[in-house]
């Protein structure tokens, strides 16, 4: 298990380092990074989520119990973060980054690790995890940005508009609807969406690396500590309790623990940049959690999986 997890984490860390190097060497014009972030947010990430949900294979998976565990644990931890906001930071934009660092997850690591652990069955478990968590975390994050983003608190009508027009949520809804209705993707469209989705992962991580500001590293310590404590300790413990509550066990329970202990996703940075969060801090949280996950992820999953 440890080797599979480390193998999934290594390319992520290397892509972040490469992005930082490209930015420092000014290999690409500064304008490139803003345009790349926009491309990822409006085209590549929606393609990833839509394709993943529309083509999910759920045969032999206790998806009802697994979805319940993942949604409930995510919502509970989100409420815990919101209740502790004033203790975490007085900076609203910084709080949005801590919030995303606590509840978002890296799809790439999760799918790779689940496949390495459980083979084809692991891919099915990963599909259920994505179907449950992706829409949940995106709705929660949009609501948090609406209240705490640097643009100021939005009126309720604008919050609804933000949810209705958010490209990630639209992609999740459309992909889930395709899956529920049993409509397959056309032969020419499916590989195009798959390719676009795959492109979102390396491009997003390169943008994360480019956004790192090492001069602000001292300011990261507390926010990184809070988000990592939530991600690698509180979230998996709440998930374990939810597994017992909904009687989820075996490989499905281990997969649920795995996905709820993953480091936060590169899409967190893209969302912070687009919706008024603290993007440099978000980049720091992503980079630090990715490194910490090399130790924390195997340790937590191995320790807690014996209780499911």
From TrEMBL:
Cell compartments where the protein resides: Cell membrane
Transmembrane segments: 63-84, 105-126, 132-151, 163-183, 195-217, 229-247, 279-304
Name of protein: Transporter
Protein family (similarity comment): Belongs to the auxin efflux carrier (TC 2.A.69) family.
Domain of life of the organism encoding this protein: Bacteria
InterPro entries listed in its UniProt record: Mem_transp_PIN-like, Na+/solute_symporter_sf
Bilayer topology annotation: Multi-pass membrane protein
Keywords: Cell membrane, Membrane, Transmembrane, Transmembrane helix, Transport
Database matches in PANTHER family: AUXIN EFFLUX CARRIER FAMILY PROTEIN
């Amino acid at each position: 298990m440890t080797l599979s997890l480390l193998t999934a984490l290594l390319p992520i860390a290397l892509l972040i380092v490469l992005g930082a190097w490209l930015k420092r060497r000014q290999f690409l014009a500064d304008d490139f990074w803003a345009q790349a972030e926009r491309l990822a947010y409006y085209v590549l990430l929606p393609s990833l989520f839509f394709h993943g949900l529309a083509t999910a294979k759920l045969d032999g998976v206790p998806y009802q119990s697994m979805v319940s565990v993942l949604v409930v644990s995510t919502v509970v931890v989100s409420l815990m973060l919101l209740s502790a906001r004033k203790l975490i930071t007085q900076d609203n934009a910084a709080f949005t980054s801590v919030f995303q660092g606590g509840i978002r997850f890296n799809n790439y690591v999760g799918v790779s690790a689940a496949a390495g652990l459980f083979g084809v069955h692991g891919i099915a478990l990963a599909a259920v995890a994505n179907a449950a968590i992706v829409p949940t975390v995106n709705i929660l994050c949009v609501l948090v940005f609406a209240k705490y983003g640097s643009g100021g608190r939005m009126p309720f009508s604008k919050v609804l508009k933000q949810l209705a027009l958010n490209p990630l949520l639209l992609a999740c809804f459309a992909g889930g609807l395709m899956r529920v209705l049993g409509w397959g993707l056309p032969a020419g469209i499916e590989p195009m969406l798959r390719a676009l989705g795959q492109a979102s992962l390396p491009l997003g991580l390169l943008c994360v690396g480019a956004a790192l500001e090492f001069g602000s590293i001292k300011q990261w310590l507390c926010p990184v500590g809070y988000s990592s404590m939530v991600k690698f300790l509180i979230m998996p413990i709440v998930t374990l309790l939810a597994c017992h509550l909904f009687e989820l066990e075996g490989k499905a329970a281990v997969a649920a623990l795995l996905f709820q202990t993953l480091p936060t996703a590169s899409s967190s940075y893209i969302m912070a940049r687009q919706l008024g969060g603290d993007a440099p801090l978000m980049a720091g949280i992503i980079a630090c959690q990715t490194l910490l996950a090399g130790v924390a992820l195997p340790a937590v999953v191995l320790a807690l999986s014996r209780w499911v």
